[in-house]
Amino acid sequence: MLKRVIGFLFATGLFGVFLLTLVFLWWKSVEPEEVFETVGPKTMDIVQKTVATGAIDPRNKVDIKSRVSGVVAEIGVVAGDVVESGDLIAVVRVQPDSQSLNTGLSRVQTARIANRDAAAQLSRGLALFEKGAISAVELDRLRLEADLRAAELRAANNALVVIREGAVRGTGEVATEVRATVPGMVLAVEVKEGHPVTESNTFNDGTTIATVADMTDMIFVGQVDESEVGRIREGMPIDLKIGAVRDRQFSGTLEYISPMGVVRDGSVQFEIKAALEPVEGVFVRAGSSANADIVLQRTDEVLAINETVVQFDEGQPFVEIEVADQRFERRDVKLGISDGIHIEVLDGVKPDDRIKKPT
């Protein structure tokens, strides 16, 4: 009896396992019905723009340089000071080199000897003129020679003073004083007291003492890729976002596009400049990084769809419109401008249509 019960239970268990296997295989073979997500069009503004990266700089920025070589003895300003044209920036103490000093001394000695000789010649000429030995014309020539030699001596002495001190006494102009040439704000002081400087001349750019700029007239200087430069033009409005002023957006006008591109990081970039419209109460620092949005095209209050629902068949764009519950039909569409996320629909879609979102 016990063997029969055990056999029955064993057979029942095998049959149950067989049924469960069949149910599992049937469940796996049944594919769940796919439900497609749909989206609708919406009315919105489409703005097509390109982005240029760059920085904010003053339009007029001037490097103040020394007119003499030497060592900085005094600095009268710090970065951030506002100066007027002619304000003292620094004082340079002249330290002449031995060759220039020797040349100046030699020139003075030569001029002194020539002046002494011309004075002696004039003295003898006067004596001879009184005796009637020479004519008035000859006397005038001797006086002219003496005046020329005296002028050469004065010039040689003045040149020696310039070499030693950097200025001529009594002229009212002190070359050792470095003064602002334009009004504005001091952006940077490039030297410290004791720093050696070289003069600015036709052969040498010279050492920059300080940089002064007009901070009321700022411009955006940036780069645009060659694929976009053909679509922009002077006079276009731009929107600026400045890294140092995160909570404000600035406006500007494109005023310059470089005629020549420069290769940067493997692509050709063109420099652009745009005038920045000032905002009252907001101080924009020179060199601040900024991004410029240049509006290429704009349409307001148009019907638009997400670009992800647009499909293409041999170049023809189309969408799938829901005509019944989860039943769709193809409909060709005519598209307008795109902002990279949404695209304008000119024809083929109605405001109440539901569009299939491709998987």
Written account of the structure:
With 359 residues, this protein is of the alpha+beta class. The protein has four domains: 38-48 and 300-356, conserved putative lor/sdh protein from methanococcus maripaludis s2 fold (Beta Barrel), CATH 2.40.420; 51-58 and 215-296, Elongation Factor Tu (Ef-tu), domain 3 (Beta Barrel), CATH 2.40.30.170; 61-94 and 173-213, RNA polymerase II/Efflux pump adaptor protein, barrel-sandwich hybrid domain (OB fold (Dihydrolipoamide Acetyltransferase, E2P)), CATH 2.40.50.100; 98-165, Helix Hairpins, CATH 1.10.287. The protein is built from four helices and 22 strands. The strands form five sheets. A six-stranded antiparallel beta barrel has the order 2-11-15-13-12-16. A four-stranded antiparallel β-sheet has the order 3-10-8-5, with no helix packed on it. A hairpin with a 2-residue loop joins strand 14 (262-264) and strand 15 (267-276). The longest helix is centred in the first third of the chain and has 33 residues, at 98-130. The two termini are 63 Å apart. The model is unreliable at 168-173 (pLDDT under 50).
